[in-house]
Amino acid sequence: MLGHKLKQTILGTVASGALVFGLGISSASAVPTFTINPNAIPGISGYTPQVESDINGTSDTLLQQTGPSTQFETGWLQIQSYSNNGASSTFLQTGLFSGPLANTYGMYATFQATAHGITGFGANQAGTIGAGDFTFKLFADVGDNDVFNPGATSSTGGVAPSVTDTGGNDIVLAIATSLSGSAGFQAGTGAPIFSAISSFIICDGTANQGLLGSTVVTGGDATGCGTFDARTYFTAPVPFFNVNFAATTTAQIGNVTGGGTNPPNATINGIVTDLNFATVPEPGTLGMFGFALMAIGGLVRRRRAQS
After folding, report:
1. What's the rounded Cα separation, in Å, for the pair 143 and 257?
2. Which one of 158, 208, 212, 290 has the fewest beta carbons within 10 angstroms of its own beta carbon?
3. Distance between CA atoms of 75 and 73, rounded to whole angstroms?
């Protein structure tokens, strides 16, 4: 796992997440933007490059208390839209690119996370996400025809959310690994919270290889990249950014089940999630020039700057 360390305070909810990209944020500036080229996806044509700041969707998560102070989370994030500093992209309708042109595709991420310092499900629980504790893969669903299966719990254990790759033609675009983060449950409401700053390795067309900024990563954190060159999709900036995976809504935890020899578990459904990118992932010089904090329930972003 990548050993970069960032000193950040991060808040978010597991039920919702977003990706934000950027080189830096001044106190008066908007969230930094990135450019995508939809036509890079097989079967897609007729679109112009789009400038965005966030990737938005909803997620489904299974939580398990795997130790006295350790929780494990696994799930998927179904991408529903892009936005540029609050303005939704007009070409995103029922699917990601379902109209006005006939061709279409979807996007989603699968993720796993280990949170430390949490002793149970309930208000005022707070834990940390360390380097390598959280990973996710970002996919393009060619044809927008995958099936998203929700998680479930029972007295004998939990079933993790899963995605059925209909047609077997999904493409891995990028792989992320946490640098730092936090997780837990809000005071009062007990709603789950989650957020993590992570590396963002863009697959470059070679199996198990990608780019972290301008540095080639082979194996390790790039394992899972295929032969699709996602640099043709995420076209700018070069080098690209790190990602902030943050929850933005107060989704409630489901029934807690299990016990005895089975770890207690619970599900969280319909989590609104925001992905945004706001750091420069250059090994040896990795730093935060600014990033967005997604406050739980309030969607409050605090923008900081370092001169």
Report:
1. 37
2. 208
3. 7
